[in-house]
Write a structure and sequence with these properties.
By secondary structure, the protein is mostly helical. The chain has one domain. It has 3 helices and no strands. Helix 1 runs parallel beside helix 3. The protein is elongated, with a radius of gyration of 14 Å.
Length: 72
């Protein structure tokens, strides 16, 4: 399992990737639900960060795949 810091780093990297390569997707980043839970349960925070990262990764993959298919 990744640490909270690793997940935050990965989220930053994929967000920067989106902003650089797919700026048209940037508007959706703010719409993605991210809940910051009570700090008494750090495992929940890590799980939510992982889910957020996974959702960003899925957004990029689906969009890139769609772009590839539309150019063929």
């Amino acid at each position: 399992m990744k640490t909270e810091q690793e997940l935050n780093d990965n989220i930053l990297k994929i967000t920067m990737h989106i902003n650089e390569h797919f700026p048209e997707l940037s508007k959706y980043i703010g719409e993605m639900p991210v809940t910051i839970p009570d700090e008494n349960e750090p495992a929940i925070r890590v799980r939510q960060l992982q889910e957020y990262y996974d959702s960003l990764e899925s957004l990029v993959k689906k969009y890139a795949d769609n772009q590839d298919n539309s150019t063929n």
